[in-house]
């Protein structure tokens, strides 16, 4: 019997691994498509080196894996156990004395691997990738500062400055019909128009500047009501605030860029991070809640797949997307409640896992409920469920 169970475990395990691999590739590709098009645009229109684009592509993966790995695991479970149920293979195995908890062991084995991938990506990969992505973008900005600028779009990537260009030549970085709102001097905000402009390094090659040509600057001093100053220029150079992220403090970094230790330090001293404690707590709890979603999907998906009793990847994909949508809708709702202080961040982040995990646990126990029913009553129980008795 034990030898037979090992064969069954390997069989189910292979099915799970195959389906999970396909699901991981599918979900990653779907979520990556928009970003991939943007990276292709950087190569074709912004002339960003292919090697740099390759690194940017690599840095996108850890955050994606946090989302796609649990979804791929859920798809694998729904597809594998749903097919086994529809082919009556599970019925035969249960008739031979195998219980649901025993049949689900391969799912838990694959789930441990999925949890490890998700945990590594969430705890270590996300902050590493976010920081590395920002570092590389900084380097590219210093050498190709028009990388993030689009024509006829207001750009506010530079601190205290809004930039608009009616036309942008991607080949040489020359902008035409330039409009700038500079509020870095709060006492003397100014509006600048110029015929042409470009973003480049200064003569010392250390500071990024916006070099404008043939324009005028309009200033309305805050302390001098009714005064209006206009000055024309042939060339005007405005230094742009492009700070080195490698020297940035906690205030200048988003929660995704912070390691667990840095998040804990920021929570202990919210003033140093300049962020709400609830935001930091939500980010911290999410690092650990995301991997646990794999366990939740195993407990929920296995008995649900058996009850659905439908084969086919299309149905499995539909059920997976529906469950994933419910999970992530609950997650967004819980995160919002936690960040706004309506409920404690812990409960806000762990709400989807606790709710769906509880439902899954009831289904899981129900899948083996015959084990606790007296033999004399199992026929009536099976009839009530619309199944043939053992």
Structure description:
There is one protein chain. The protein has 2 domains: 2-141 and 271-371, no CATH class; 159-241. It is 60% helix and 13% strand. It has helices spanning 2-44, 50-86, 89-95, 100-103, 105-143, 260-268, 270-273, 277-308, 313-339, 345-367, 375-384; strands at residues 161-168, 175-182, 190-201, 208-219, 229-239. The chain has a 5-stranded antiparallel β-sheet. The relative contact order is 0.10.
Properties at a glance:
11 helices; 390 residues; 5-stranded antiparallel β-sheet; 5 strands; 2 domains; 13% strand
Fold blueprint:
Blueprint: H1 2-44, H2 50-86, H3 89-95, H4 100-103, H5 105-143, E1 161-168, E2 175-182, E3 190-201, E4 208-219, E5 229-239, H6 260-268, H7 270-273, H8 277-308, H9 313-339, H10 345-367, H11 375-384
Antiparallel strand pairs: 1-2, 2-3, 3-4, 4-5
Largest sheet: 5 strands, antiparallel
* Helical/strand content category: alpha+beta
Strand order in the sheet with the most strands: 1-2-3-4-5
Q: What spatial form do the alpha-carbon principal axes imply? A: elongated
Number of helices: 11
User: How many beta-strand runs?
Assistant: 5
Order of H and E elements: HHHHHEEEEEHHHHHH
Oligomer: single chain
- Write down the Rg: 29 Å
Strand portion = 5-15%
Please mark out the parts with pLDDT under 50 across 5 or more consecutive residues, or reply none. 370-378
Q: Helix content range of the residues, please?
A: 55-70%
Mean model confidence by pLDDT: 80
How far is the N terminus from the C terminus?
Answer: 20 Å
The figure for the number of domains is: 2
């Amino acid at each position: 019997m034990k030898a037979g169970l090992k064969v069954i475990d390997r069989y189910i395990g292979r099915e799970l691994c195959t389906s999970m691999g396909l699901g991981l590739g599918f979900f990653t590709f779907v979520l990556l498509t928009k970003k991939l098009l943007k990276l292709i645009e950087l190569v074709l229109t912004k002339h960003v080196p292919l090697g740099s684009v390759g690194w940017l592509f690599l840095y996108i993966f850890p955050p994606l894996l946090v989302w796609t790995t649990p979804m791929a695991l859920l798809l694998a479970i729904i597809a594998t156990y749903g097919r086994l149920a529809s082919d009556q293979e599970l019925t035969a195995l249960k008739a031979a004395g195998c219980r649901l908890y025993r049949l689900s062991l391969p799912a838990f084995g694959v789930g441990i691997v999925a949890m490890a991938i998700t945990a590594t990506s969430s705890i270590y990969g996300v902050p590493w990738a976010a920081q590395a992505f920002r570092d590389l973008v900084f380097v590219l900005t210093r050498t190709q500062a028009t990388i993030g600028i689009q024509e006829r779009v207001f750009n506010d990537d530079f601190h205290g400055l809004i930039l608009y260009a009616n036309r942008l030549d991607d080949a040489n970085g020359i902008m035409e019909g330039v409009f700038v709102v500079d509020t870095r001097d709060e006492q003397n905000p100014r509006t600048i128009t110029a015929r042409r402009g470009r973003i480049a390094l200064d003569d010392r090659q250390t500071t990024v500047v916006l070099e404008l040509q043939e324009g005028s600057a309009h200033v309305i001093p805050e302390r001098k009501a009714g005064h209006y100053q206009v000055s024309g220029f042939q060339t005007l150079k405005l230094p742009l605030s492009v700070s080195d992220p490698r020297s940035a403090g906690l205030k200048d970094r988003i929660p995704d860029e912070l390691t667990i230790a840095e998040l804990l330090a920021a929570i202990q001293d919210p003033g140093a991070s300049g962020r709400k404690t609830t935001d930091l707590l939500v980010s911290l709890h999410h690092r650990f809640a995301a991997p646990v979603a794999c366990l939740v999907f195993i407990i929920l998906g296995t008995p649900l797949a058996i009850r659905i009793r439908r084969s086919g990847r299309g149905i499995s994909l539909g059920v997976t997307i529906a469950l994933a949508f419910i999970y992530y809708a609950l997650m967004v709702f819980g995160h919002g409640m936690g960040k706004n202080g309506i409920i404690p961040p812990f409960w806000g982040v762990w709400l989807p896992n606790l709710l769906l995990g509880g439902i899954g646990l009831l289904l899981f126990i129900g899948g083996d409920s015959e084990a606790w029913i007296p033999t004399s009553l199992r026929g009536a129980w099976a009839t009530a469920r619309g199944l043939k008795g053992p």
